[in-house]
Every structure is written in C-alpha cells, then in structure tokens.
C-alpha cells in the first residue's frame, strides 16, 4: 500500500482543489491520502464526494501550535490531527479562533508591506486567501507582483519568522492541542519536528512529555528532514512507542515535492486507524 498522510488544498494554502487532490492522489498511485489543511476541515466534504474508486481518504488537519523551543523560548509547531470528530465543541471553537488569528495576522503583514511601498493590496490578498489565510497567500501575491521570484524566496526573506514584516499569532499551546485532538477521538502526530530550514526547533524532550497528554506519533520521513534528523526522531519514537509516519506535505505547485514522495508504512497507518474514534476512513 502507498500511504501519504500530509497534503494541502485550496481550503488552506495548496493549489489543488480538494476534488483535484484526490484525483491526483489516485493518478499518483496512492492507496490512502490524508487531507490536512491548516486549521480547517473545509475541504473534507468536497474531497469525500470526489473520491475515486480504490482510494481511501483520511480526514485530518494540520494545527498551528506553540511548543517549547530548544532554547526554552516558545516556538511555532505544527500538529497533524487525524480522524477527529469535527463536531466536538471545544475543538471546533479552537479551530475558529485559529482561523481568526491567521486572518488578522495576514492582513497586518500585508498592510505593513503596503505602507513600506511594496506593490501589495491587502484587500486583494485577503480576498484571494479565503477563510484559512496564511503567509503562502501573501507569498503568492509577492511573486505575482514580481517582488520575488518564488514562494521559497519570499519565505527566506520578506516573510521569514522574526523578519521585518513578520507578525506573531497566538497559536494553541502544544499540550492543550494534543489533549483537544484526543478528546475529539482523533490521533495526533508532530509534523516535521526537525525542519531546521523553517527556523527554530522544538525541544525534543517535549515530545516525550506529550505522550501523557495523548500524543500518538511523529512524522519522520519528510523533505525538510535530513538523515540525522530522521535518526533523532526515530530514536524518540522507539523510546516512547510512538507511531511513525512519512508524508509528502504536498501543496500543489507551491512546492516542488510530489504526492507520494514520502510514505507511511501500512502497519503504522493501521495503528492510527485502531486508535481513532472520531470519524472513519472513507473508501472510494
């Protein structure tokens, strides 16, 4: 089985619609694909309705969190949440709060750029971004305006964490996020926890601490992880009997990575399904 458990669509910052994502997943030879847009479940219904025969859909989300950095200071962390009940009241309220944070933060960054003379129209950026607004939408506007040559270039300079135009947003404390996912019957996995190219890193000891809160696994095989990073995470997974996943983190044309470029072993996927009680995997 070919299983990719981390993808994005136009419901957040990808370029494929949810319907196109599942069709492309089938064309890429996947047997299972997880839809994990940022802080939203908005693409779930469309993806399920368009699911091709032979492909299974894992409904999920990538949650914006705040953990403890290696230096002891707060650091942004992403948490993959799989097969949770979207109707769980506390978790639904937190997703709504996170989306509001994303929207206000993106507008503030766009307005800073416009005041500085960059050819960015905040209203146009927000209209294009939709309800799950994020920095990639602003990066796309900068590419379209000719300010930068690529989304990666925008993140390396104008949009980088702590940079001139960066605006902080209040993400969910990581232990609280893990508990919310568990309370909603879902399964939580730390996303790209050693992606040093993205900035400061999560303190690895916090991963072990989160097991008591219900953390289920860690994403290991990812294009932003070097071999040494994968070894570090694999050691933590062994010590705490965590589920290990591999995923593309596909965003369509926003990134060069392809669907199925990294995969999750069937035995690890079975552990996720066995642990979940929120919603079922949908089979086409």
TrEMBL record:
SMART domains listed in its UniProt record: POLIIIAc
Residues annotated as signal peptide: none
Highest taxon of the lineage: Bacteria
Annotated ranges, domain Polymerase/histidinol phosphatase N-terminal: 3-67
Protein name per UniProt: PHP domain-containing protein
């Amino acid at each position: 089985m070919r299983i990719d458990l981390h993808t994005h669509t136009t419901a957040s910052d990808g370029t494929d619609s949810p319907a196109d994502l599942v069709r492309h997943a089938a064309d890429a030879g996947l047997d299972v694909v997880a839809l994990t847009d940022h802080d939203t479940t908005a693409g779930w219904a469309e993806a399920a309705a368009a699911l091709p025969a032979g492909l299974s859909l894992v409904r999920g989300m990538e949650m914006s969190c705040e953990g403890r950095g290696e230096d002891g200071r707060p650091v942004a962390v992403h948490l993959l949440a799989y097969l949770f009940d979207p109707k769980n009241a506390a978790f639904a309220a937190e997703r709504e709060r996170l989306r509001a944070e994303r929207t206000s933060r993106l507008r503030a960054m766009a307005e800073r750029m416009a005041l500085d003379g960059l050819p960015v129209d905040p209203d146009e950026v927000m209209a294009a971004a939709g309800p799950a607004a994020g920095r990639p939408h602003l990066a796309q506007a900068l590419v379209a305006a000719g300010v930068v040559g690529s989304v990666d270039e925008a993140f390396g300079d104008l949009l980088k964490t702590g940079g001139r135009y960066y605006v902080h947003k209040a993400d969910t404390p990581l232990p609280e996020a893990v508990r919310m996912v568990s309370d909603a019957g879902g399964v939580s996995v730390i996303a790209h926890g050693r992606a040093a190219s993205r900035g400061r890193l999560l303190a690895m000891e916090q991963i072990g601490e989160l097991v008591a809160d219900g953390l289920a696994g860690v994403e290991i095989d990812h294009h932003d992880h070097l071999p040494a990073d994968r070894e570090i995470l694999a050691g933590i997974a062994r010590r705490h009997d965590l589920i290990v996943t591999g995923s593309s983190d596909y965003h369509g044309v926003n990134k060069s990575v392809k669907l199925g470029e990294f995969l999750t072993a069937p035995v690890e996927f079975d552990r996720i399904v066995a642990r979940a009680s929120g919603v079922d995997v949908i089979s086409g």
